[in-house]
Amino acid sequence: MHKWQNLGTEGLWELPGRGGKPKCKEEDIVFLEECLKKEPRTYNSLQLAQKLERDRLIKLSPDRLRRVLKKKGIIWKRARKSHKGKQDPVIREKKQADLDMLQLAAAAGEIDLKYLDESGFCAWSEPSYTYYQRGEQKHLEQTKRRGRRLSIIGFLQPLISFIYGLVIGGVSRKSYIQMMEYEALDAEKVGRMRVIVQDNGSIHRCREVQQLWPKWERMGLYIFFLPEYCSEMNPIELEWQHLKKDELAGKMFDDELELAYAVIDGVQARGEKGNYSTQRIKFNSNSSG
After folding, report:
1. pLDDT digits over 257-278, tens only?
2. Backbone angles phi, psi at 162, to 5 degrees
3. Which CA distances in Å does 83 have to 88, 138, 246?
4. Is the pTM of this model over 0.85?
5. How far apart are CA 204 and CA 106, in angstroms?
6. Bridge partner list, 154
7. What CA–CA distances, in Å, run from 86 to 89, 90, 280, 288?
8. Model confidence at 99, in pLDDT bands (50, 70, 90)?
9. Taking the chain, what is the end-to-end CA distance rounded to the nearest angstrom?
10. How far is CA 22 from CA 17, 29, 33, 150, 178, in A?
11. Strands of 194-198's sheet, edge to edge?
12. What is the Cα–Cα distance from 72 to 83, expressed in whole angstroms?
């Protein structure tokens, strides 16, 4: 009231703000966004603060910078590996068009479309984030030995089924052939064309497997090969990620048998969440080596 009485309407105007002025301008944040998008590396808040001071002469603490970035929608999250730089865009576009047609045929019930891939698990998994008391850190005791690798080969039919097999060590061509034989027999029994989408792994194209292609095609089983470095076109890759990060993350196992049971339980849990059936195929003793 006194300002209005003494200065009139000018007394109602806001004076220039007091306190420290922002050190970081909009163009500085744009600079950091471009670095995060274009540079082939990852940054944490300390590294970004150092880069901002080195390249833009702006000094901010990592904590302050985290708050500024959060307001701009830039958050701390996991990065993923990519091979898009090695892809042939022309081949990928053609293959994607063919795969789209197969997916339409599968949606119409004309064919069965399944996605095949292999992955692996170890008794020791990398520690992940967890809730715990402030100022304390949770320690996960490692088992006595890392153990042998447990491999899985699976066929995903989205929203319908997931058929898989487990082996100690890597998936061999004999294990792969046994799984494909199972699918070929089932396709012949159903009487409907079945297409298996898979990558160009060495066991998928070895001489012994190629000799079986005509037989499988007569039984109604066909193979669709994805272009090289295009794993994102195979939705089963996401199943492996969720299985490892959601069902098995942060766990340690005493031996391969305990790990196998955990994988089986994890696959079943994924099936219940996704409302699709799961089935484990047991390999012959002479096909799992």
Report:
1. 899 999 999 999 999 999 999 9
2. -140, 115
3. 11, 35, 24
4. no
5. 23
6. 117, 164
7. 9, 12, 35, 33
8. very high
9. 89
10. 11, 12, 18, 54, 66
11. 221-225, 194-198, 112-121, 150-157, 161-168, 277-280
12. 28
Length of the chain: 289
Q: How many Å separate Cα 186 from the centre of its chain?
A: 30
SS3 letters for the chain?
A: CHHHHHHHHHHHCCCCCCCCCCCCCHHHHHHHHHHHHHCCCCCCHHHHHHHHHHHHCCCCCHHHHHHHHHHCCCCCCCCCCCCHHHCCHHHHHHHHHHHHHHHHHHHCCCCEEEEEEEEEECCECCCCCCCCCCCCCCCCCCCCCCCCCEEEEEEEECCCEEEEEEEECCCCHHHHHHHHHHHHHHHHHHCCCEEEEECCCHHHCCHHHHCCHHHHHHCCEEEEECCCCCHHHCCHHHHHHHHHHHHCCCCECCCHHHHHHHHHHHHHHHHHHHCCEEEECCCCCCCCC
Q: What mean pLDDT comes out for the span 239-262? A: 86
